[in-house]
Automatic annotation (TrEMBL):
InterPro entries the record matches: Complex_I_Subunit_2, NADH_UbQ_OxRdtase_chain2, ND/Mrp_TM
GO biological process: mitochondrial electron transport, NADH to ubiquinone
Enzyme class: translocase
Cellular compartment(s): Mitochondrion inner membrane
Primary localisation category: mitochondrion
Family of the protein in this entry: Belongs to the complex I subunit 2 family.
Gene of this entry: ND2
Catalytic reaction(s) noted: a ubiquinone + NADH + 5 H(+)(in) = a ubiquinol + NAD(+) + 4 H(+)(out)
Bilayer topology term: Multi-pass membrane protein
Tree of life domain: Eukaryota
Name this polypeptide is given: NADH-ubiquinone oxidoreductase chain 2
Ranges annotated as spanning the membrane: 84-106, 118-137, 143-163, 193-211, 232-257, 269-290, 311-330
Molecular function terms from GO: NADH dehydrogenase (ubiquinone) activity
Length: 331
């Protein structure tokens, strides 16, 4: 009971730090919010009390501490070289976010997390750095650099996830790819970024909840063709395809909104790179899906009866399939 109470305490502290960062009137208060966020998330990582959790929490602390040090370093350069200070500040926030070229720590941390904390790292923990990055988009120098880093994130996220076999690493590189889209959306408008981030969170929640319920960690577990698990296996692949952005699933909707914004702003080169990187992630998810259909026994598909009484299954189906009616509302 005490352990549960401590988890609740640190979760409330984590949400409070995000509120502090979003509403901070100065960069100093925002930096304090980032430190509070770090100190609140580390106990949630190390709650398992094992060696893997301890190593993961130590890695996360060192990376985030380096990012915080770079923020303080940028403040010291501000009176002398304002442009250089803004560049260091942007790189520090990209490091905290886990975007390319500072993405190296993100898959390693994801590998050592449980599904609930991995979901938090993919969603909630992105809010604070991206809100602070949005303050830098009004400067032409940082805005141009942000577009370059966003394209790099999408390419690395798409290419690096192809040969992965651990599901948490696959979702980590998928998240890096999505970061490229979100950063591009952030350079155009905060509303576009908010749409993308909200729908990305919904899709990630459905994937993580399904994998957590089934205790999945490896691709080989997805290709388990027992007839009684056929329906849930099919749902797993549908949620992955939605996360990859395949129409008519809801994961395609934020990409469609961003594509429209990119076309209206005549940003064709970033659009082409983002689309090519997304095709790489879709290729991997479609390859898994085709393996499921071609390797499974034919009698397996006669047992595809979804249990609609399961609230989690119903939630995942509803979230991922409501992209088609919502897309009709987007002009």
């Amino acid at each position: 009971m005490m352990f549960s109470s401590l988890q609740t305490l640190f979760s409330v502290s984590l949400l409070s730090s995000i509120i502090l960062i979003v509403s901070a009137p100065s960069w100093f208060l925002a930096w304090m919010g980032l430190e509070l966020n770090l100190l609140s998330f580390i106990p949630l990582i190390s709650s398992k009390n094992n060696q893997i959790a301890s190593e993961t929490s130590l890695k996360y602390f060192l990376i985030q501490a380096l990012g915080s040090s770079m923020i303080l370093l940028s403040a010291s350069f501000l009176p002398l070289q304002a442009n250089f200070a803004l560049l260091i500040l942007l790189l520090a926030l990209m490091l905290k976010l886990g975007a390319a070229p500072f993405h190296f720590w993100f898959p390693q941390i994801m590998e050592g997390l449980s599904w609930p904390t991995a979901l938090m790292l993919m969603t909630i923990q992105k809010i604070s750095p991206m809100i602070l990055i949005s303050y830098l988009t009004k400067y032409d120098q940082t805005n141009y650099m942000l577009i370059q880093l966003a394209m790099l994130s999408s390419i690395i996220g798409g290419m690096s996830g192809i040969n992965q076999t651990l599901l948490r690493k696959i979702l980590a590189f998928s998240s890096i790819n999505h970061m490229g889209w979100m950063l591009i959306a952030l350079t155009m408008s905060e509303t576009c970024w908010l749409y993308y981030f909200t729908l990305y969170c919904l899709t990630s929640i459905s994937v993580a909840l399904l994998f957590n319920q089934q205790k999945l960690s490896h691709i080989s577990q997805l290709l388990n063709f027992k007839s009684q698990q056929a329906s849930i296996n099919l749902l797993n692949f549908l949620t992955l395809l939605s996360l990859g952005g395949l129409p008519p699933f809801i994961g395609f909707l934020p990409k469609w909104i961003t594509i429209q914004e990119l076309c209206s702003n005549n940003m064709l080169l970033p659009l082409m790179i983002l689309l090519m990187s997304t095709l790489l992630t879709l290729y991997f998810y479609l390859r898994l899906t085709f393996s499921f259909y071609t390797l499974a026994a034919p009698k397996t598909f006669h047992t595809l009866n979804f249990n609609y009484q399961n609230s989690l299954t119903t939630f995942a189906i509803f979230i991922n399939l409501m992209g088609l009616p919502l897309s009709l509302l987007v002009t």
